[in-house]
Amino acid sequence: MNVVVLHQARALARLGHSVEILTRRSSADAPAVVDLAERLVLRFLDAGPAQPLAKGGHELVIDEFSARLDEIDPVDVFHSHHWFSGMAALPVARRRGVPHLQSFHSIAADPSTPLSEGERPESPGRLAGEAFLARESDAVVAISAAEAHTVEERLGGDPSLTTIVPPGVDGSLFHPWTGGRRGTGYVVAAARLQPLKGLDLAIEAVAGVPEDIRPELIVAGEASADFDGYVDELQALAADRGIAAGVHFIGPQTRDDLAALLRESRLVLVPSHSETYGLVALEASASGVPVVASASGGLTEAVIDGLTGVVLRSRRPQDWSDAIAELMRDETRTAELGRAGRAHAEELSWEHSAVALADCYRRAVASGTR
């Protein structure tokens, strides 16, 4: 979500729009305002303690954040990128008579449904809040057709008010490897470290690859505070499968470091139970690296099965091991997938994404509020 917000905002500013990114102050050292670029401002608003909060704790400061939003200068449109911010911004937009657009980036599923159907609610109001925003916002901006379908089916959103704006990718930052042959090398799984991302399947899959071609597995991402002990469980699983020495948890990466990590890898694994899109898959394609992904949500749009990677409907570890092994053995096929992935990614720039988003804003302003 943060990557999409920042890059779309930068692209909108380059197109001549004035953009403010508004977020909660989580550090006492953060300045009130940061000029990120011409016509692009990052503003920190005081709501709750000036320190990081657990994800569920943000619900307690929605009203205070809303009050701070009501103090900013006039704007033409509010676009919220999480249900917390939507619940804070919608009443302000209504009082001001300007449109409110809502993006979710992930949508909660009721705890009684299977994990594969979506995110779990981290705080009490999430399920009701997301449904309210889908119905009451002037428009919903979905990142994929899969998310648009979820907005309609799970949240009761009006499909006529939902627009799909796919993300982009920085093809200069994420570009193919230009070195020599990589050898056995490594594969990458880059994600938040939480059960939804299916990293246990990545470990099981790599463990099942024949030893003579088995790659190392690099797991990049920040451990989620809401799932204490999950990394220990993954490490224990790797040890139990006999590949502990070949599984490396390297923590969160800068954008530059992630780009280098992807382009030097043999494959990128995205075994998530649910993804509204799966931006890392597109970044892997831009890097000329094939993707092995689960057929969940927007991943079937981010990865073109058989062209830019392999999309698996099975979560059986051996099926994943077989797919990885086949690509590890067939360098010609891997190179073909990598080239096609790069060509696909070159058609999806952040400028293209921003143009589509600006069109959403214009339509919302022209239509007026509900």
From TrEMBL:
Top-level taxon of origin: Bacteria
Q: Does the keyword Nucleus apply?
A: no
User: What's in the keyword line of the UniProt record?
Assistant: Glycosyltransferase, Transferase
Residue intervals of the Glycosyl transferase family domain: 186-343
Report the residue ranges that make up the Glycosyltransferase subfamily 4-like N-terminal domain in this protein.
Answer: 1-168
The molecule here is called: D-inositol 3-phosphate glycosyltransferase
Q: Does the keyword Transferase apply?
A: yes
Q: Which InterPro entries match?
A: Glyco_trans_1, Glyco_trans_4-like_N, Glycosyltransferase_grp1
